[in-house]
Design a protein that fits this description.
With 263 residues, this protein is mainly alpha-helical. It contains ten helices and two strands.
Length: 263
């Protein structure tokens, strides 16, 4: 089965599944958010996950998302947490020991720059032409003067800063709700709508078209490894301070998505 057929099947399945799993359940209580995710790249560099300015009535209402798959979600959440704790953390010790922070930051800058087509297309689909300009100017400058994007030279240029756009946000722009909350194996928190968005964005991303496949998988794996390495300290802090780690991560996810959709 080729990539195109696999993506089509997954996307259609998720749309069908959304109708089956979108039944609302009683929302979990929102826990206080105490830290802020930061990292390089589409790896959540611009994500203000835990900023108190979003803990208003509008966010609290928006965060009451259905979790009709909670049993399955909690199982996958425990699986993901186990992978992070017992598989990734030892790998990360070696990874961070081999690559110093500045090098890892450069990797993140490169992958973020490489994701420009995803952000551009979704900004166009939402008629956010100011972001089209900012993304294009930033991409050109970082590519030409930042050694292919390894150096994020526009980081300190406020006029070129913008929050990232993706296809999940585009679907929200056209009125599609999240559907049920889902936890994806290895990928983490999402929703049925945003999972469809992930599939669409993956097709647009330049890494999808890299050949041979072994090179594509290696680059994608390194991108995800570098991103998770940057997020790991904050993940551990949230885990330690949460009464219910699953609920905290769900609330953080929807808070982040709500903030992005408003920008």
């Amino acid at each position: 089965m080729n990539k195109a057929n696999l993506i089509l099947i997954v996307t259609l399945g998720l749309f069908i599944f959304q109708g089956c799993a979108g039944k609302k359940t009683r929302p979990e209580p929102t826990l206080p958010m105490q830290e802020q995710f930061t990292s390089a790249d589409n790896n959540l560099e611009d994500a203000e996950y835990l900023d108190d300015e979003y803990l208003d009535d509008e966010y609290l209402e928006e965060s009451k998302q259905p979790d009709g798959l909670e049993g399955v979600n909690r199982a996958f959440f425990s699986f993901n947490d186990g992978v992070i704790s017992y598989v990734f953390k030892p790998i990360n010790t070696v990874y961070t020991g081999f690559f110093p922070p500045d090098v890892r930051r450069g990797f993140g800058n490169f992958y973020r720059n490489l994701g420009y087509p995803v952000r551009l297309i979704n900004a166009l689909l939402q008629f956010k032409f100011d972001k089209v300009y900012k993304e294009t100017a930033s991409f050109a400058l970082n590519t030409l003067f930042g050694v292919g994007g390894l150096f994020h030279i526009t980081h300190d240029m406020p006029s070129l800063q913008s929050s990232p756009e993706d296809f999940g946000q585009t679907l929200a722009f056209y009125g599609m709700g999240h559907g049920s909350y889902v936890v994806l194996p290895l990928l983490g928190p999402s929703s049925l709508r945003d999972t469809v968005g992930l599939v669409a964005d993956a097709v647009v991303h330049p890494l999808f078209w890299v050949q041979p496949d072994a090179v594509q998988y290696s680059l994608t794996g390194h991108d995800k490894t570098n991103a998770l390495s940057a997020q790991l300290p904050t993940y551990e802090t949230i885990k330690e301070e949460s009464f219910d780690h699953y609920t905290s991560m769900k609330d953080i996810y929807f808070q982040h998505r709500t903030s992005l959709e408003g920008q």
